[in-house]
Amino acid sequence: MTRDILYRTEERKGVPGLGGLGTSYSDLYGPLIRPRKVTKCSTCPTLNDNLPICLDRRLNRKFDLHILPWLFGIWLFSFIDRSNIGNAKIAGLPESLSITTGTSFNVALLVFYIPYILVDVPSNLLLKRLRAGIFLPSLITAWGIVCTCMGFIKSYAGLIVCRLLLGMFEGGILGGVIIYLAMFYRRHQMLYRSGLFYCAAPLSGAFGGLLAGALGQVRYGGYERWPWIFFIEGAITVIFGITCFFFMPDTPAMAKFLTDEEKVWASRRMRLDASGSTAIDVDQEKFDWRWARMALRAPQMWFCAAIWFFLLVPLYSFSLFLPSIIAGMGYTSTVAQLFTVPPNMAGFLVVIATAHYSDKVKNRGFFIVGGTILGIAGYIMLLASDANSVKYAGTFLIAAGVFQASPMLMGWVANNLSPHYVRAVGVGVVISVANCSAFIGTFIYIQRDAPKYTLGHSMSLAALVLNLLLTLAQMIYLRWENTQRALGHRDDRLLDDENVHRLGHRHPLFRYTL
């Protein structure tokens, strides 16, 4: 059957066919998604199916104002509370708990990731069922309480228990935030927003370093130095988490800051952006094991999982051990805390800039490749030079390269999996697999290798080389698959009348983001 005959057959049956062959979205989805008439200025340009650009921009501004600040704060406090143990280490925690030798401290870092990995997929599936505006604030409040309690620990066993609980409550955050963003923003508007919230990670290193530098000097009430890092930072997280309950909407249709007209169009533009992968709103989607199987059979999901795995080896080790790396250059505890600020600020600025341009050119892979090359150069500087100035400059390159690649991967996997429950399962699996890298990242910087940390730097360098090769391989695969769809080699999928609305990202109209 030719492409034209196939199209006419699908059109006659009222099934979404090959809309790229002279058919508008109205023709494809008219009775399903026709909203009330919207009032707009006569000169306002439109997007697909007469969606006014002015209205699209107004929706984005409202979402940016009412959603992004809370997601930014969630990720900021998540990274601070996850990595402040690195600051506590050089503020006396190992000495207080008698874990100054061996790998006991590394084990404490590692156990965080066991529940973190296990809860990710279940947490993503529960996000919509338990209401995102309640579920995400509940998680941040719970981990803030745990972080606060870490200041009271008196034994190594207490440290392990707190790290396990922290991992359990933080495990659903990253995947939950990615899926939450995908409910509100179109595919090629999402990466910039992912960057805006993820830039909180390097900022947490800068802010956490300044805060830890001050709190690490406090001696009061029988608690000296490191407990106050957990007390104050944990308490701030709890207050922020409780505040989130009152302001985060569950879905666009439940956003109180939108008018009725805006709610209709917010839902409609997401259906249009799905390019045939779904014909219903996220509020109406129900879980089906078909979606789970579709996610697990998607090559792009496994590519992203492998790429993120090797990216997180240097990312996590850098976040956790940067104070130790700088202290290894011969600086005192307080100075080392403060010296973590500039590299993290560099990472913060690069994340925002690259996220903006990535959405502008609708490409993720090239930015990951560029960031990986920067990171490789940074680790070579740490390994090859004995000069502190060169080593410190290398940390800037690592921060700039590694931090920006992570939100790129978030956007990449979310862009190329559809609809909601396929994305929920896929993102959960990707994050779970990727975070297994923690079993490597937390054990490559050990005390006996100080101050050069040759093993840690070498392992991080090797991980980035593999990351580079896998990123290039995924880009080649996605370009090939898009070409096959453009040539009509996937049109046979439209012959199944009953399941044509359930093709997800396998729909011939759907194009992968490179």
Explain the layout of strands and helices:
Layout: H1 3-12, H2 25-33, H3 53-66, H4 68-89, H5 93-97, H6 104-111, H7 113-118, H8 120-129, H9 132-149, H10 156-170, H11 173-184, H12 190-198, H13 200-215, E1 219-220, E2 223-224, H14 226-244, H15 260-273, H16 289-296, H17 299-327, H18 333-339, H19 341-361, H20 365-384, H21 388-415, H22 420-434, H23 438-441, H24 454-486
Antiparallel strand pairs: 1-2
Helix pairs in contact: 4-9, 4-12, 4-13, 4-14, 4-17, 6-10, 8-11, 8-22, 9-10, 9-11, 9-14, 11-22, 12-19, 12-21, 13-18, 13-19, 16-22, 17-18, 17-21, 17-22, 17-24, 19-21, 20-21, 20-24
Domain Major facilitator superfamily (MFS) profile: 67-485
Main location: membrane
Keywords: Membrane, Transmembrane, Transmembrane helix, Transport
Write down how many β-strands occur, each being a DSSP E stretch of 2 or more residues: 2
The N- and C-terminal alpha carbons lie at a distance of: 30 Å
What number is the mean pLDDT? Answer: 81
Structural class: mainly alpha
Strand content: under 5%
3D architecture notes:
The chain is an all-alpha fold and 514 residues long. Helices cover 68% and strands 1% of the residues. It has 24 helices and two strands. It has helices at residues 3-12, 25-33, 53-66, 68-89, 93-97, 104-111, 113-118, 120-129, 132-149, 156-170, 173-184, 190-198, 200-215, 226-244, 260-273, 289-296, 299-327, 333-339, 341-361, 365-384, 388-415, 420-434, 438-441, 454-486, and strands at residues 219-220, 223-224. The protein has a two-stranded antiparallel sheet with strand order 1-2. A hairpin with a 2-residue loop joins strand 1 and strand 2. The chain is globular, with a radius of gyration of 24 Å. It starts with a helix and ends in a 28-residue tail after the last helix. InterPro entries: MFS, MFS_dom, MFS_trans_sf.
